[in-house]
Fold HlyD family secretion protein.
Amino acid sequence: MADAQPAATGRHRWWWLAGLVATVLVVTLAVRWWRGPLVATDTVVRRDFVQTVVASGRVETPHRVDLGVQLTGTVTRVAVTPGSLVQAGDALVELRAVELQATETQAAAALTQAQARLRQLLEVQAPVAAQGVHEAQAGLAAADAALRRQRTLFARGFVGQAALDETIRAADTAGAQVRTAQLQRDTTRPAGSDHALATAGVASAQAGLHAARARTAYSVLRAPVAGTLIGRDVEVGDVVQPGKVLLTLSPAGTTQLVVAIDERNLGLLALHQPAVASADAYAQKRFAAVLASIYPSVNAQTGAVEVRLDVPAPPATLRQDMTVSVDIEVARRPKALLVPTGAVHDAGTATPWVLRVEAGHAVRRVVRLGLHGGAVTEVLDGLQEGDAVLPVSAATTAGARVRVQPPARTD
């Protein structure tokens, strides 16, 4: 009987302990229920804020130049490959030019002949014509003297009428010879017809030589401007003709980024806004850009507007038609009050609101928003720095009790 009594006392003690533990557990659960669930919160902070519009696009120079030949011929040499950097005047494609060179030689010979004719006129014919004038004038002077003597003799009766008439005819003939010699001399002078014909012959031969040289020059396709070759559609041995694009050149100059911006962001854009871009192939290498132009219309199919940005100092890795990502800075606010965008309810309406933790309760607060920046949004009214707000994803309603989950330790 003595052993049975202590055993009953032990069982009683265990029942008492179990009841105490259950009571503590119930009380703890009740307190936690009363205080609400443990929830993670976001904190309203104050810092400098930059609003950006993010878009993707491609690299493009202001224009491209399609190059082709101006005559039909067989390609004998192609001096460039896609990616080659060329300077203005560099030879890109050469055609067989044997016949063209022969034509140029003939034109050069024709010019030499025309110049020789002009030189002969100036060095031989002109002096001879001038000498002829002098001789004719001397003959005329002699004829006039003879006529004067004959008239004196005729007046004295020493010669007859026939002799006088013959002397007069001789004087007239001498005068005609002077006029003819003068005309011949005048044609050799700069204003004369022979000189004009000889000069025109030289000019015509020079034009023919220039044309022949130009056609020979057409056998070599040269770069009109400096740039980068981005396309080639010609090989040695091809027979090419005018009108066919053989090469495409991207001229050196201002590199531009062409991006499509959602039309909803059109009101945020303005010329000369700064931007930061990176090529998808080199995502870590970011470079500066400036908004240069905004297309005047919106694409009806995509609902986007095309904008172009100048790249003042493009990196060496940048290539034509590369895909790029661009962050355009559309607004900047120093010391802005910011709330995570994921904590704002009805952000696109006239009355956005948040759930702010106040005295252990989730309280609905209407806020007035300012700039939007993706992960964060500026708050103009309704919150203060340091406020704890609940994310939209939290399964909590306004007025519910909540407990703020302490931040995770980072040490």
